[in-house]
Amino acid sequence: MWKSICVASTFGVAFLSIGSALAADPTMDVPPGAPPVEGAPPRPMDPDHLMPPAPPTTTTESASPTTTTEVIPPSTSAATAPPMVVPTPAAGYYPDARDNQYVERGFGKTYPPSVLGAGVLLGGGVQDFSRGNIRDMTKAGGFWSARLVAGTREYVGLEAAYIGSAQSISSLGLDNNAVLVSNGAEGALRLNLPIVRGAGLFEPFAFGGVGWSRFHIARSAVNTSDVASNDDVVQIPYGAGMAFAYRGFLADARFTYRSTFYNDLLRTTGGKLDTWSAGGQLGFEF
């Protein structure tokens, strides 16, 4: 009897333990097909356990502001300004040098800074007497000059110059190496015909004026001849030539005849000291 009681107590405890376990399992009361309870272990026979769970889907909605920018394309046809009318300068006229970007003291410029045009020239050439008496006693010699010119780009201009010359002279009573030297100054009115081509100037001209010159016998220690040692004469120079100018450079070539008055160099025979000369000069225009 005690044995039966012990066996029955053992089975009772076993059934009580199984019932407690079933009561603690939340999945046991979930019908088939229902979603599993959160935190509960998967059921072996549940069909939902055989399918992998779908990944969670996260949807983020972001509202971005809409900005509308109006792009205006550049105009393909630019406004065309009316052409500038530049008056043609009169012959011999040059615009003011302030309009020239190359303003450099007379050189490298298209136009001179002076509207009139002015220049300095240095040069020389050949000279000889034209009258018989003095020409028989002398040989052709040379002359040198320094000249200031104003109004080269006008129809009327002015010149001022220093003129010097030297010629050998032979006469009884003079040393063999005697030289007849002259030094003087003159001024002249100049008539121009300016021809302007871009930066270049071609200008035929004629001139006439008045001057003074002093003749002197040099390189002769003794003078017992009929030739005076010194003589001052009045001269009337006139002639013609051609001038050329380009970007500050100035040059000319000319022929000059000088008539003389108050000639006392030849004390006994008399005679005028008229001369002719031909030469050229170089300088610059400013």
Summary tags:
286 residues; mainly beta; Porin; eight-stranded antiparallel barrel; 3 helices; 9 strands
Could you explain how this protein is built, in words?
- This protein is mainly β and 286 residues long.
- The protein has a domain at 111-285: Beta Barrel (Porin), CATH 2.40.160.20.
- The protein contains 3 helices and 9 strands.
- Strands 1-2-3-4-6-7-8-9 form an 8-stranded antiparallel barrel.
- Residues 97-110 have low confidence and may be disordered.
Layout of helices and strands:
Elements: H1 2-24, H2 47-50, E1 118-129, H3 132-137, E2 141-150, E3 156-168, E4 179-192, E5 195-197, E6 200-218, E7 230-246, E8 249-261, E9 275-285
Antiparallel strand pairs: 1-2, 1-9, 2-3, 3-4, 4-6, 5-6, 6-7, 7-8, 8-9
Task: Give a summary of the structure in a few sentences.
The chain has 286 residues and is mostly beta strands. The chain is built from 3 helices and 9 strands. The chain is 12% helix and 39% strand.
